[in-house]
Design brief:
By secondary structure, the chain is an alpha/beta fold. It has three domains: 87 residues, Orthogonal Bundle (Arc Repressor Mutant, subunit A), CATH 1.10.10; 99 residues, Periplasmic binding protein-like II (D-Maltodextrin-Binding Protein, domain 2), CATH 3.40.190; 101 residues, D-Maltodextrin-Binding Protein, domain 2. 36% of the residues lie in helices and 24% in strands. It has nine helices and 15 strands. A five-stranded mixed sheet has the order 4-3-5-15-6, with helices on one face. Strands 11-8-12-7-13 form a five-stranded mixed sheet. The radius of gyration is 32 Å and the shape is elongated.
Length: 300
C-alpha cells in the first residue's frame, strides 16, 4: 500500500482533510511531504496507521479500518450531493406556505388543488393566519402578503392588484341617509376590523387627496369573515373591505359599493414573498409560476 491509499479522505473537514490528499493531488509530490502529513495525522489520532520498513509500507489493522470508514463516508457524501442536485432539478418535496387567513380560504385554497395534481411529488403545508409570520425565523418557504411591503429582506413578486372599498347592504341604505362624501360616515354605523393598522380611523384617498375619518361602531371584530357575512349582509352598517373579500357578495347584490371613488390608503397588491431568488429549487419555481399564472386571470 502506498501513502496515498488514504486519498479518499478529501471530502472531510478539519484535520483529516488537511492531512489526506486525493491521489490526483498527490501525484508528482515529494514522498516526504505525504509521509509527514500522514505522520501528523497519526499523532493527532494517537494510533499508527502505517507500518514502515526500509523496503515497504503496509497499513495497520487500525489504518485499514480507518481507510474503509473514509471510503464509506466519501461514498455517502457523493450520494448526498447527487440527491441534492436531483431534488433541485425535479419539482419534489415539501413547501411550507403561509397566507392571510381569509385570503387563504377564499383564493389560495382554490389555486392549490390543480397544482398538486400537476406535481404529484410535491407536498404543501399551508398556514392560514393573520399573525405576521417571519419566513426565516419560522421556517417557511413562501408567503402571500397583502398591502404595503415592509420587509426588504425578502424577494417579492406581485400576483394581483387589490384595494379596499366601502360597501353596505342595500336595505341599510334604505333606512339611513345617503353617503355622498367621506365625512358622512360620522353619521353612520360602521363595522370595525380591529387589526387594521389605522383603526379606529378609516384613511381614504381619491386622486391623490387623503382624508382620515374617525368612525363609530356598534360591531367590531378581528375576524373579517364575520364582519362580511354576519354584519354587513345583515344590514348592521358600512364595511371597509378588500375587493377580493367581497367579490361574491357584490356580484350577488347582497352588498353594494358606496363612495366608490374612494379607497383605503396603502392597499396596492397581493404579493408572493420568498427569502431569496438565488439557487431557487425546482419545487419553489414551480409553485411561483403556477400562482403567477393562476392570479393572472382576473379573479375579482
Amino acid at each position: 500500500m502506498q501513502d496515498d491509499d488514504f486519498a479518499n479522505a478529501k471530502h472531510f473537514s478539519g484535520g483529516a482533510r488537511r492531512q489526506f490528499q486525493c491521489r490526483r493531488a498527490c501525484a508528482g509530490r515529494d514522498v516526504s511531504v505525504v509521509s509527514r502529513r500522514i505522520a501528523a495525522l497519526e499523532k493527532r489520532l494517537g494510533i499508527r496507521l502505517i507500518e514502515r520498513t526500509t523496503r515497504r509500507i503496509r497499513p495497520t489493522e487500525e489504518g485499514q479500518r480507518y481507510r474503509q470508514k473514509i471510503e464509506l463516508a466519501d461514498e455517502l457524501l457523493r450520494e448526498a450531493e447527487e440527491e441534492a442536485r436531483a431534488l433541485a432539478a425535479r419539482p419534489a418535496g415539501t413547501i411550507r406556505l403561509t397566507v392571510p387567513a381569509s385570503f387563504g380560504r377564499s383564493w389560495v385554497a382554490q389555486a392549490l388543488p390543480g397544482f398538486l395534481q400537476a406535481y404529484p411529488d410535491i407536498r404543501i403545508v399551508l398556514n392560514c393566519s393573520d399573525r405576521y409570520v417571519d419566513l426565516l425565523g419560522d421556517n417557511f418557504d413562501m408567503a402571500i402578503r397583502i398591502g404595503v411591503l415592509t420587509d426588504n429582506r425578502l424577494i417579492a413578486r406581485k400576483l394581483a392588484d387589490t384595494s379596499r372599498m366601502l360597501c353596505v347592504a342595500p336595505d341599510y341604505l334604505e333606512r339611513h341617509p345617503a353617503l355622498n362624501q367621506p365625512q358622512d360616515l360620522r353619521q353612520h354605523d360602521c363595522l370595525g376590523f380591529t387589526p387594521m393598522h389605522s383603526w379606529p380611523e378609516w384613511r381614504l384617498e381619491k386622486d391623490g387627496h387623503q382624508i382620515a375619518v374617525p368612525v363609530q361602531t356598534r360591531f367590531e371584530s378581528d375576524e373579517m369573515d364575520a364582519l362580511v357575512r354576519l354584519a354587513a349582509q345583515a344590514g348592521m352598517g358600512v364595511l371597509l373591505a378588500a375587493n377580493w373579500l367581497v367579490q361574491k357578495e357584490l356580484a350577488e347584490g347582497s352588498l353594494v359599493p358606496v363612495l366608490s371613488d374612494w379607497q383605503a390608503v396603502g392597499e396596492d397588491g397581493v404579493w408572493l414573498m420568498k427569502p431569496s431568488s438565488q439557487l431557487q429549487s425546482a419545487k419553489i419555481s414551480a409553485l411561483t409560476e403556477w400562482l403567477v399564472a393562476w392570479f393572472a386571470e382576473k379573479r375579482w
